[in-house]
Structure formats: C-alpha cells, structure tokens
Amino acid sequence: MNETRRDRDSEGRAHNARPRDGLGRPLPYGTPGVERQPEGVVRSADETVREAQRLLDAGMPFHAHEVFEDAWKSGPDGERELWRGLAQLAVGLTHAARGNATGGARLLRRGAAALEAYGPAGTHGIGVGALACWARELAERVQRAGAGPVDAAAEAPRLRADAS
C-alpha cells in the first residue's frame, strides 16, 4: 500500500485496510492483527446476540459493536434504537478498555439512555434494564480518578436477561 494514498474497497470507497488489535486500534501495515468482523452481514436477532456475546466474552467489544451496527442498519425500524444503544455500550466498553475514561463513560451513558428509551420490556431476551444499570455503573467506575483501563473481557455484560 502506498502510505500517501487512502485504502479503497473494490468500489473505490475509502476503507482502512490496516490490521487492528483486539480493541480495534489500528496497527502498522504488515503487523499481524485480529481478524476483522465482516461488514454488512444480515443476521437474525438471535444470531446477532449470540455473536456479539461471544465477542464481548472474548474481550473484543469493538468487534461486537460492528455486529450490533449491522443489526442497527439492517433490522426493522422499530428495533434500530435497541441495536444502536447496544452498539454504543460496546463502543463505550472499548473506550474504557483503551483507557479513555471520558469517552467510555459518555458512550456507556448514551447507550444506557437509548436502551431505557426503548422500554423495560426488552426483546429477543435482551436484558435492557440490567444492561442500562451495568453501563451506568461502569461509567461511574471508569470516571473515578486513577481508575485506568478496564479489562474488557472481565467487564463484559450479559446480553440476555436469562443468561448467567
């Protein structure tokens, strides 16, 4: 790759081809990275939740956010705020794991608000209320002085209300 030109996909759109680490940070060209999530995958809600939970449990919230983003973009209009809120929680956890307390807390709170606006009933077995509480508690913790980066795998939330 010519480092002075932008990476492009097959249709000529800008697309960063740099490898990334487990938290989605770009690495230098030629460095081995973590396999990226394919974009634009249409999954069922159940498949979305299972794949996102797998990635969260593996300490890869950036990649889980991409799964939620696919659902947000391809899902029914009535569920877009749910998937968008879940994507914001995953990005908030990503920032918190990278040591960005301010950005992490902001996105965790924004995601919690989006989930709360969705309503307490939830859907697809997703524990909306518990996730909003988890996000607000983590936001408070990461903003404490000296909290430092969090362990993304250890902090991974349970998406399903009935999951242990």
What does this structure look like?
Helix 2 runs antiparallel to helix 3 and helix 3 packs parallel to helix 5. The longest helix has 19 residues. The protein is built from 6 helices and no strands. It is mainly alpha-helical. It is 51% helix and 0% strand. The model has no long low-confidence stretch (mean pLDDT 87).
Task: Write out key terms for the chains shown.
single chain; 164 residues; mainly alpha; 6 helices; globular
Q: What are the SSEs and their pairings?
A:
Blueprint: H1 45-57, H2 61-74, H3 80-98, H4 101-118, H5 128-143, H6 152-155
Helix pairs in contact: 1-2, 2-3, 3-4, 3-5, 4-5
Tell me about the biggest sheet?
none
Radius of gyration: 16 Å
- Given as residue ranges, the uncertain stretches (5+ residues, pLDDT < 50) are none
Count of helical regions = 6
- Portion in helices: 40-55%
Distance between the termini: 46 Å
Secondary structure tally: strands: 0
Q: Which range does the strand content fall in?
A: under 5%
Mean pLDDT, as a whole number?
87
The assigned structural class equals mainly alpha
Shape: globular
Order of helices and strands: HHHHHH
